[in-house]
Every structure is written in C-alpha cells, then in structure tokens.
Write a structure and sequence with these properties.
The structure is a homodimer. Chain A has about 220 residues and is α/β, with parallel strands linked by helices. In chain A, about 40% of the residues lie in helices and about 25% in strands. The first copy, chain A, contains ten helices and eleven strands. The longest helix of chain A has 14 residues. Strand 11 of chain A pairs antiparallel with strand 11 of chain B.
C-alpha cells in the first residue's frame, strides 16, 4: 500500500522506516521539498522510500499518517490539502505539547478540545483515527521491545477506518486484543491528556521505553 | 492512629471503613454535624468511628484525608481550618470533575494547575500528598480485587509525608514496589489529567474495577 507520512521528525522517520520494511511504499513529506532530513531518509530507504512536500506526500498516500507536532499539525495538513486527504484514513499520532522556557509542559488544545478533534472538524472528509500517541516511537512499531502484553488505543468516528488502523497495528506487531477502542474522535482528548502523566512516568522510570497494560476484575 | 476524613461520599466512607478495620480511629467530617450519611456511618462503624464537622474531623486527625470532590475541596478544607491542618499529612484523593448537562467531562483546574497544587499553595503548612485518585474506591483499599501486580502513584513536596503515605498504602495492601513516586506536588496535575482517559477506559472495559500496570524495558 502507498503511505504519505507528514512530518520528518523521529516519529515520522520511524513510522516510514517500518512501513518500507513491511513492503509498503512511502513518501515522507516535509514543509519544503529540500528538507535535508527527508532527503537523507529517502536516500537510505531504497526504491520504496521517497521524499516530497506535505502535498506530494498526501497525494501519494492511499493512507496518510500525521507525525507532526500537535501544535503545528493543522498548518501542515492545510498545506497537504483537504482535497488530498478526503476519503483516506488519516492516522494522527500527534500530541500538542508546549514547553515553557523553564521546561514546564502544558497542552494546547486541552480539556475541551484536542488535536485529533480539530483535524476531524477541519477535514470532515478525512477518516481520522487517533492512535500511538501514548508511546515512544521505537515502541510504536516494535511492541516486542517490552515483555508481555501491553496496550495501545484507537479513537475515531469511522469504525471502518479504525478497523484498518487496527490491521496496520497488527502489521506493526500489536495483537488485535492489545488494541483498546476508546470510542469516537473525542477520545483523542483523553489520549492527549495523558501526556503530563507519561512525562512524569518517564522521569520516574528513567526510560522512554514503557507502556500501559491493564489489570481488570475477572 | 487518629484520622480525619473530609467528605462523606462513597470514597470517604470506603476509606473510613478501611481505616477502622485496620484498628485506627476515624472522624468522618461533613459540612454540617447532622449529615445523615456521616451519622449513619458512625453508627455502624463501632467505637472507633465518629462523625463531626469538617473542623472536628481535621482537629481529631493526626492525619487528614481529603475525600471531597475536587471542585469543592478548597472550600471544605477552609471550613476544616488551616490551623487544624498544619504539620499534618494531608492525603488528597480528589479529582476536579465537571460534567456538563449532556454528560461531557472537563476538569477545573487543569493543564496549568491542579487541586493538589491549589491545596498545597493555600495550606502551606499541610504536608499534601496526592494519591489514589486514579482508582475506584473499592480498589483503593483492596488491591487484591485485581489479579497480579498493578500500580498506584504518589506526588508531593514533602518526602517524609510521601513515605508515611506509602506506609499507609502498605496497610491498605499495596506493596511498596507497586507505588510509583511522580515527584513534587505538581505531579498531581499529571494524575488528575488522567481522568478523561480513565472514563474512556471504564466505558471500554465495562467496569470501574481496573488499574494500570506498567511494562518497562528490561
């Protein structure tokens, strides 16, 4: 399948690498076509890895992955173009992290809105699914880095789109029963609001490589 | 030990029951001395269970537990009185949940502040520790209701107060290594902001009886 990955940071490149390794074809999109990270990525990715603008990546992809920072996601997707996102699964990985000069974390938006919801509202023809924002990038595409069973989450308005994302997560190594469906796209708000907790846990554990699992009453 | 429990809802009564069962003496505090829930609780609690006003409960307790709703916690603690809280461990269980008429959840405060932090700022002589707000009440005092190892969290500025709370959690059945220290009282913000996630998980699981456990890189 052809994927457009919007965003050339560590998350975007990690997802793009995994998609190519799985046999998919990827265009990694950046603000400008001359983006050095995207050029370097495409050069080492082999014949199935390309670079382009946000619009070229969105045009290329049968599915689109938003791997930008949540604070710039809407701007990047506007550059990608609503007409190139319509009808496609749009997997949103982003978190709206805002760090103060002193390093304090806040979220924007938060509480009454989320990046996932904003994307779905602004691009009503896109089939937005929020997922994987609760994990460090290496774990997104390789859950076996942690022992035992652990969980990821999906949220979105389009049940068929969520099923496609669950299947993609399966390609990444996530068993179907490890994926917890948190309902409609407003579940993105719940997922993004776990970020301050994630940061504190990272500090407590001394590693970014950790994940949720849940114990339930039997 | 003598405990004052502020708040006569399900959380307060569950904590008070457990403390009495452990051999402690408890005054369950309510806005008015004639509160029927508190009277009924004291009547069935035996000689170590009492009821009183917020101020009487705080005066009675060598330690104080805030089991009010987060939206009214400060008002309740003002009624308890700063002079009756100073120097004491103040275990804050609250969450600032605000439900719209349509049932939508938001938090107030959120993102740049939390109930735990507000309590510590307004009562600087109290030794505030945030804990147990991530769990349904029956699990707070009986972790064995769920199989296997799972986690609770503490946050607070006073390390000795946190150690006292970890010991109390041990009395409740939480092994010391199940308690994750999330740092200073601003960790309360991270903990309270997990509430939308908790609500969505409850909906996905169809039960309130679930809890976090974490998988980490080995």
């Amino acid at each position: 399948m052809r994927y457009g990955v919007i965003g050339t940071g560590g998350v975007g490149r990690t997802i793009a690498d995994k998609l190519v390794a799985l046999g998919h074809e990827v265009t990694l999109g950046s603000r400008t076509k001359a983006n050095e990270a995207a050029l370097a990525w495409a050069e080492q990715a082999g014949p199935n890895g390309h670079n382009g603008t946000f619009a070229e990546a969105a045009e290329f992809g049968e599915r689109v992955v938003n791997a930008t920072a949540g604070t710039v996601a809407l701007e990047a997707l506007r550059a990608a173009g609503a007409e190139r996102l319509g009808g496609k699964v749009l997997l949103d990985l982003s978190n709206p992290l805002v760090f103060s000069p002193e390093g304090a974390l806040t979220l924007d938006p938060v509480n009454t809105d989320s990046v996932g919801e904003r994307i779905q509202r602004e691009f009503p023809q896109a089939r937005v699914v929020k997922a994987l924002n609760t994990l460090t990038a290496p774990l997104m595409v390789d859950p076996a880095r942690l022992p035992g069973e652990h969980n990821v989450f999906v949220a979105g308005d389009d049940a068929a789109a969520k099923a496609e994302v669950v299947a993609l997560l399966g390609e990444f190594g996530w068993p179907a029963d490890s994926v917890i469906d948190l309902g409609d796209i407003s579940g993105a708000r719940a997922l993004e609001m776990t970020m301050p907790f994630w940061i504190r846990l990272m500090q407590a554990f001394g590693t970014t490589e950790f994940n949720y699992s849940f114990k339930r009453a039997q």
